[in-house]
Amino acid sequence: MKNTNISKKLFIKSYGCQMNVYDSDRIKNLLEVKGFHETSNIEEADLIILNTCHIREKAAEKVYSDIGRINRLKQKAECRKKDFKLVVAGCVAQAEGLEIKKRSPNVDYIVGPQSYHNLPEIIESDANIINDDFLQHEKFKNLIFKSSKRVSEFITVQEGCDKFCSFCVVPYTRGAEFSRPVNDILKEVKIYCDAGNKEIILLGQNVNAYHGTNKYNKQVDLAYLINCISEFDTIKRIRYMTSHPKDMSDSLIKCHGYNEKLMPFLHLPIQSGSDKVLKKMNRKHTVKNYLDIVEKLKSLRPDIALSSDFIVGFPNEDDKDFDETLQFVDNVKFVIAYSFMYSSRPGTPAANLKHIGLEVKKARLYSLQNLLKEQQKSFNKSFVNSKIEVLFDRKGRYNNQYIGRSIYNQSVFIEHNKDLIGSIQKVRIIKSTDFALEASLNE
After folding, report:
1. Across residues 296-302, what is the average pLDDT?
2. Among 205, 257, 188, 252, which Cα is nearest to 226's?
């Protein structure tokens, strides 16, 4: 596919985490220079990119299912003599590049998450290429940063993982931990500030493992970076995800106590409430370590809201282990949490352990999710008839409906005749649901 001045259409689909959304935005920026413009209609696309996730088995299989549907579309396109290319990018591409070509020969290009900056050149060469080198240092030097025109902007500041949890493929698909220099990140933040963005969300596989260098070439931590970003007047809110308990430093905990722009919401995955299971997972922390972090955070920011991730049915998890998880959840009181049945990933140490039956995993997941749902419901209900600040970032389904986020990251819906996008409003909560809040601007 040779580069011409003729406008071409790009369809891109992101799977999985927010880091993939960020990567997809960067891919769009790179391809805009080559004459591609995004379309939401896959049938009119000249180039289709699937930016994939490999965390769970179902996520990977969904990609192969989508490739099959696109193959039928591609056959249709070939009948119309349309020059139509398919790219698989992201973590599935990194982990299963050869398998993708074997199972889906209709895929034209395969690029991993550390080498997608080469995509324009790969497409122009019009050759079948698997590009899966780990090029983090080179990648960020070659990206183009433009505002996504969203009120909140994602910024990847850290990639990779050195933790090697026994269930996780990230170290194999994203490589070793890498942190971008502070000045490079601040230059990107300024681009978004100039475009009117109000909120910055810092991303990383282990974002609080951030150890970039400042302008004096001194290594600094995430708290330092957050404080630098908070000096931009136009930035009103800062968040970060996803964190690891092992990297929850005292300086970062203290930052939650004094930095008013750092939102009082923390996503801190624990995965299990059983020390035995955590050891099998190679999580490198205990339940007590986690509870100590929570205690320190709440002593500095009493209203902080906590979110987490849980895996149920991990190999060798028994009834006692699962009961300990339920007791742990009941103790901490999470405002929202994400829970999944254990999914074996090929090549990880846990894949070789004795697995638990599906029915047991389903029953445990049902029990855990019921408890987590009740906690979220209770937290949301506590806001009814109170006032909170909301940053409105998008329109709803209906006329005059706007959706925003509270400081605790809750979705807040409101109906109003004036455009609220990009504004921070103090609203009264009039109703709560299991997952969201309904508000009014009227007294």
Report:
1. 98
2. 252
Give φ, ψ of 267 to 5 degrees.
-95, 110
Least trusted range by pLDDT, from 14-18, 150-154, 198-202, 264-268: 14-18
Please, what sign has the CA dihedral across residues 423, 424, 426, 429? positive
What are the structure tokens assigned to 290, written together? 């986690």
Residue 391 identity (one-letter amino acid)? L
The helix/strand/coil state of 185 is helix
Phi, psi of 111 (to 5 degrees): -135, 135
Residue 293: beta bridge partners? none
- The H-assigned helical ranges of 80-145 are 91-103, 119-125, 136-142
387-440, CATH topology level: OB fold (Dihydrolipoamide Acetyltransferase, E2P) (2.40.50)
User: For residue 132, how many C-alpha atoms fall within 13 Å in the half-sphere facing its CB?
Assistant: 20
Q: Which residue has the higher pLDDT, 174 or 253?
A: 253
Tokens of 199: 């909120």
Q: How far is the C-alpha of 68 from the C-alpha of 65, rounded, in Å?
A: 5
Q: What is the pLDDT of residue 2?
A: 46
Residue 278 Cα distances to 164, 166, 213, 245, 374, angstroms: 13, 10, 32, 12, 25
Domain edges within the chain? 8-135, 387-440
Name the H helices within 35-83. 57-79
Q: Which residues contact 288 (CB under 8 A, 6 or more apart)?
A: none
d(CA 182, CA 255): 17
pLDDT in the model for residue 81: 59
* CATH class for the region spanning 8-135: alpha beta
Characterise 208 by phi-psi region: left (phi > 0), alpha (psi -120 to 50), beta (else).
alpha
CA–CA dist 398, 376 (Å, integer): 25
Q: In CATH terms, are 8-135 and 387-440 the same topology? A: no
Sign of CA dihedral 359, 365, 368, 372: negative
Residue with tokens 């990018």: 89
Residue 132 three-state SS? coil
In this structure, what DSSP letter does residue 184 have?
Answer: H
For residue 362 the two structure tokens come to 């389903």
72-108 residue pLDDT tens: 887 776 666 577 899 999 888 888 888 888 888 889 9
- The whole-angstrom separation of Cα 435 and Cα 339 is 15
